[in-house]
Amino acid sequence: MEPIQMPPVNLTLLAPLLVVVGWATALLLIDAFLIPVGRKHITGYLAIAGMVVAALVGLPLWNVSGSTFSDMIRLDRFSLTLTWIFLLTGSLSVAMALDYLPRHDIEQGEFYPLLMFAVAGMILMSQGTDMIVLFLGIEALSITLYIMTGFAYPRISSEEAAMKYLVLGAFAAGFFVYGIALLYGATGTTSLAGIAAVLTKQPLVGESQTYLLTGVAMVLIAFSFKIALVPFHMWTPDVYEGAPTPVTAFMSVGTKGAALAALWRILTVALAPMQSFWLPVLVALAAVTMVVGNLGAFSQTNVKRMLAYSSIGHAGYIIMGLLVMSERGTEAFLFYMIAYALTNLGAFAVVISLEQRGEAAWSLDDFAGLYQRRPLLAIAMALFMFSLAGVPPTAGFMAKFYLFSAAYDGGLGVLALVGVLTSAVAAFFYLRVVLRMFMHEPLRDLRPALSQGLTADILLAGGLTLLFGLIPTPVIFLVEQSLVALGK
Amino acid sequence: MGDGGWGMGDGSYTLRPAPYALRPTPHSPSPTPYCIRGDMFQGFPILSLVVWLPTLGALLLLSVPRGAAELARRIALAVAVVTFLASLPLVFGYRPADAGVPEATPAMQFIENLPWLPSWGISYSLALDGVSLWLVLLTTFMTPVIVLSTWDSVHKEVRNFQILLLLLTTAMLGVFVAQDLLLFYIFWEFTLIPMTFLIGIWGGANRVYAARKFFLYTFAGSVLMLLAIVGLFVLHRQAVVATQPGFPGTLNFSRIVTDLRTGNFQLATATERLLFGAFFIAFAVKVPLWPFHTWLPDAHVEAPTAGSVVLAGVLLKLGGYGMIRFCLTLFPTASRWAAPAIGVLAVIGIIYGAVVAYAQTDMKKLVAYSSVSHMGFIVLGIFALNREGVSGAILQMINHGLSTGALFLIVGVLYERRHTRDLAAYGGLWAVMPIYAGITLLVALSSAGLPSLNGFIGEFVIMQGAFLSPELGWGFLAFAVLGVVLAALYLLKMFRAVFMGEVTNPENQVLLDLSRRELVTLTVLCVPIVLIGLYPSFLFGPMQTSVAEVVNGLAATVAGR
After folding, report:
1. Which residues of chain B have a Cβ shorter than 8 Å from any chain A Cβ?
2. Measuring CA to CA, how many Å separate A368 from each of A128, A243, A319, A449, A454?
3. d(CA B517, CA B416)
4. Could you give the C-alpha distances from B323 to B258, B288, B316, B459, in angstroms and in order?
5. How far apart are CA B327 and CA A243, in angstroms?
6. Cα separation of B125 and B138, whole Å?
7. Is residue A34 part of a domain?
8. Chain B, nearest residue to A412 by Cα
9. Any CB–CB contact under 8 A between A298 and chain B?
10. Is A392 among the domain residues?
């Protein structure tokens, strides 16, 4: 019998991913056997350390690119930049959880390794160049998120959110698998490059074409669900509101970013020849998402829920960067992700600092007069709100400028117009928070708690939001360089 | 780089080849052999100094303890005065046109250029021309006056008020001197944040509503402008890349204007109108032009006196400045196309503002609506699209800043004493507060356009411009004249109600006349009011080159003119 040929495997290309997975696995055991109950924050610090190490391991890979595992996984600068964004998101979320979990009496050591597994799933999604690997990444991310969403047991809203997310998430996963199967039926491959090769060779006809179009539609539905594009967004507000706040922060940035990165590869590599099919659909979805997300946030008086709707709206903005299919668009997507990650994580950190044990302080009224009690906290929140609204001089403004100019340049001026108009609407509800904080008297005695982790979070996020608004050059340089090795 | 680079002429439009160094280095030797008086600032970033001094002052104020109100006021006053002194060399260093060779005088002076976002071709570039010169001076002149007025009108969180006020000053100065559209937009938008807080924290009973309305109106207007800036950036790059591969795009104002005028960059008629409209709406909201004015009365009534003075004194001028600088220069054809319609809006604003002002019983509201009317004059002058109209509009912006600023201070004086602004509560104050009454009369007459005071000159030149303009003509002039008559009516009505007759209310019997500080504040404003009225050429002189530049650009687009 002939020996099975193992394809050559180059593990260096997976170094950051391996560090995260390995560290998380070890951490599970360390947490179970070595770290005493009541000192679980040590696990959290170790998790942050692991993610910092993973980020550092990525540094020497900057000039490396290549594929491994039979071209199913690819390392390039695009994926590396996203990896860093995800590691940053993960670390900041852990820093929030360090304070949040004990205060709500739900601290379990597993939380931190779980979050690292989620980050690993996200990294895999940014590196995958095969439908199967992308599916693996999505599932690794989703399953950990289902658990983390329900982490606030026995709080009923958390349980409900986890259940809702699980049922709908499983449904979306079904769509994705079905889509992959149909695409395989039509093209005979699951590799993104392979699909593109078949599609460019000759147009598919008859049955194959039906399989292809149905498959593409199903994949798009699955991703729309993960990114929370309207009308596949219904789960988002409830899940975001019910989940423990650090998990919400993590999801609102990380999941979206990872799903968008994977979608970027699918659209630009595999489905580029079918642009005329998916472009109008996704343009319409993006426009509707911007409108519904921002109008939905308009009527919220619950700040956490408002941020959930606002994150829907922002997904509508970010996807513009993908749809224009240009280098500038991809750069804008990365830039926006960085700005949005910093701003949104910072905003959620402020929300967490207001939450007390056993009660949520998410109402707008709880923000009233925050300036009088905690001036710096209020100023930081104002900065985040202005950045989300896109008012200069913040990173959020630069990101919008980048994105809108890319969209306009790529012939999607209409989307840019919708984006501009909806951000005028969005200014209303962001401003409302600011006005409450600075111009109203405190309505009840609420003592914001700021631990080291939260303080570091807010300082880092706020500082960078302002810095990148004034001097965005380093970030622009990073995202421009991120596309150099792509060889497009 | 020193010669500005865009074509300018003296009546007959001449196209100058524009040697434009793409992305100039900060220390490139500026070839300005003919710049004589400007020489003393060669290489010294005087504009940056003026723009950022207030911000430095704001940072300094952060180190002052929150409760130290008196100290904070003094520091802010010192910073404001130093900024004003630092801006004076701009007047004396600014080189107006030479009689013989007007082309040799650069329209843009005191140029600073630093790469900021090189890969997008966006730079930190500042410069000053005749349009912005006096507006910068107005801003630096009004700031100490505003700080002085906070002694009486601001009593809580004084330090933070001053910090926001100084930040606002930086943003407003930045708007007037920024030569890169993105930089301009950033300064423009940043004015919103401090002003919203000034209204919302220190304002009257309904302050939060007014602050929200102010923010949302202006923000909604400006996001459209952002899209237009993005559009201009992309279209310009696409046009230039054809001949110059690898061009990263630019938002440098002079560069875009040069390319527009040399035909390297052409806009389709519909595109030009859309872009013009997006810019125009942003500016019209700020001015505010009828029917975009509804935020203004709320903002004025709720704002503290110092806030109203900033708003009327400087912030509204941002809109007028933007129209001259961007609408007229970038979109000359669309400006001509839209001029009659905008003229109609301006005239409606003049009459409407005046009539509504007459109906007010609240003094502050009366002055606020008079602002709507006066700003209508300014828009009318700008869209007369000729030298007279535009120069008159610039002058009138200065005048309006001085006299309406003074009127708000005057209202504030009474409000601090009696805590009411109702006209019916007063009467016969001439006998009780003679100095105050005298100054009020002077300011009211200036605002109403009495000859020999500043307001007359501005309105007269604007009306001359409107009459001569082929787009507007005598019909508009007639309504403008009616507006002047109405202005006299409502201002004198206010004056009569407050100062004439007998003292009917015993509370008014004991009112004290102006304190020394109030007297200084108001006198400082009265000096230029009188001087401009007597010797307006001092202001008109330096602005002529730049105004001609704008107007010739407009004329060049119409064949046979």
Report:
1. 116-120, 182, 185-186, 189-190, 192-193, 196-197, 200-201, 207-208, 211-212, 215-216, 219-220, 223-224, 226-227, 230-231, 233-234, 237-238
2. 46, 24, 34, 16, 20
3. 14
4. 18, 12, 12, 18
5. 50
6. 21
7. no
8. B231
9. no
10. yes
Please state the separation of Cα A210 from the chain's center in Å. 32
Chain B interface test: which of A420, A428, A466, A471 (most B C-beta within 10 Å): A420
Chain A closest CA to B103's CA: distance in Å?
36
Helix (H, G, I), strand (E, B) or coil at A359: strand
In a domain, A383, yes or no: yes
Chain B residues within an 8 Å CB radius of A472: 117
Q: For residue A412, what are the domain limits? A: 274-488
Task: Enter the ipTM.
Answer: 0.86
| Helical pair A111-127 and A15-33, crossing angle rounded to 10 deg | 170
Q: Provide the CB-side half-sphere exposure for B335 (13 A, CA).
A: 28
The residue of chain A nearest to residue B186, with distances taken between CA atoms, is: A392
The whole-angstrom distance between A436's CA and the closest CA on chain B is: 9
Nearest to A420 among B116, B196, B227 (CB): B227
Gap from A60 CA to chain B (nearest CA, Å) = 25
Which amino acid type is present at position A351?
V
Report yes or no: B1 and B112 within 8 Å, Cβ to Cβ.
no
A73, containing H or E segment: strand A73-75
Q: Which of B190, B227, B238 is the closest to A392 by Cβ?
A: B190
For an interface test with A, the pick among B160, B191, B226 (most A C-beta atoms closer than 10 Å) comes out as B226
DSSP secondary structure code for residue A397 in this structure: H
Q: How far apart are CA A190 and CA A193, in angstroms?
A: 9
Radius of gyration of chain B (CA): 23
Which of A405, A424, A440 is opposite residue B223, by nearest beta carbon?
Answer: A424
pTM beyond cutoff 0.80 = yes
Residues facing A356 on adjacent strands: A359
pLDDT in tens, A306-346: 999 999 999 999 999 999 888 889 999 999 999 999 999 99
Cβ-Cβ contacts under 8 Å between A and B: the total is: 81
Helix (H, G, I), strand (E, B) or coil at B399: helix
Collect all residues of chain B within an 8 Å Cβ-Cβ radius of residue A439: 200-201, 207-208, 211
Residues from chain A contacting residue B120 (CB–CB below 8 Å): 476
pLDDT, averaged per 10 consecutive residues of chain B (561 residues), comes to 36 35 39 42 80 91 84 91 90 70 64 83 87 91 90 83 92 92 91 89 85 88 90 88 83 86 84 92 90 88 88 90 90 89 92 91 90 91 89 91 91 86 83 88 88 86 87 85 89 87 80 85 90 85 81 65 33
Cβ contact B69:B202 at 8 Å: no
Q: What are the phi and psi torsion angles at B125 (to 5°)?
A: -125, 130
A-chain residues within 8 Å CB-CB of B122? none
Q: Which of A391, A404, A473 sits opposite B192 (nearest CB)?
A: A391
Does residue A325 fall inside a structural domain? Answer: yes
| Strands A73-75 vs A66-68: parallel, antiparallel or unpaired | antiparallel
Going by the DSSP 8-state scheme, the letter that residue B178 receives in this structure is B
Domain positions in chain B are 37-556
Tally of domains within chain A:
1
Distance CA A399, CA A406 (A): 11
Q: Flag if A401 and B230 touch (Cβ within 8 Å).
A: yes
Contact of A477 with chain B, judged by CB distance below 8 Å, is answered with: yes
A190-221: string of b/e by CB count within 10 Å (b at 16+)?
bbbebbbebbeeeebeeebeebbbbbbbbbbb
DSSP per residue, B82-127: HHHHHHHHHHHH--PPPSS-GGGS-SSEEEEEEEEEGGGTEEEEEE
